[in-house]
Automatic annotation (TrEMBL):
The keyword GTP-binding does not apply. NCBIfam families: YbaK_EbsC (TIGR00011). Keywords: Lyase, Protein biosynthesis. It comes from Nocardiopsis sinuspersici. It is an enzyme of class 4 (lyase). This is Cys-tRNA(Pro)/Cys-tRNA(Cys) deacylase. Belongs to the prolyl-tRNA editing family. YbaK/EbsC subfamily. CDD domains: YbaK_deacylase. GO terms for biological process: translation. Residues 28-141 form the YbaK/aminoacyl-tRNA synthetase-associated domain. It holds the Pfam family tRNA_edit. Its EC number is 4.2.-.-. One of its GO terms (molecular function) is lyase activity.
Amino acid sequence: MAAGRTKTTYTLHPYEVDAASDGHSYGTDAADALGVPREHVFKTLIADVDGRLTVGVVPVSTTLDLKALAAAVGGKRASMADPAMAERATGYVRGGISPLGQRKRLRTVIDASVTVLSTVYVSAGRRGLQMELKPQDLIKLTEAVTAPIGSS
């Protein structure tokens, strides 16, 4: 479900993408470019949990704990999904995968740290564009559960 169709309040924040980026730091690059704390900018990662694609949304300052993600959805094993498979399932390119408006609705887990924030930033569907919205709106729109899935 897209935020615009639900009358959810959000703000779009464009920023300049660093062409020299190594591709592993899109989220931290976004936080730095926007001048917001890294704990407020969340990255969207796609994992394979027991053969089923699952979305993990964690602060860019952390890494996704695959074991915790699997446990959060009642699974046993998790591994990062193949990037091409993630792009096909979501309709977004790597570095621009949004937890919202995905081609195929995937079960979603958002790191529990989101609940203490007043707003959160997530990709708006392409590199160079972040969406700021209330955590409770993100949880509702993605039909997510929250769990401690980010590790330092």
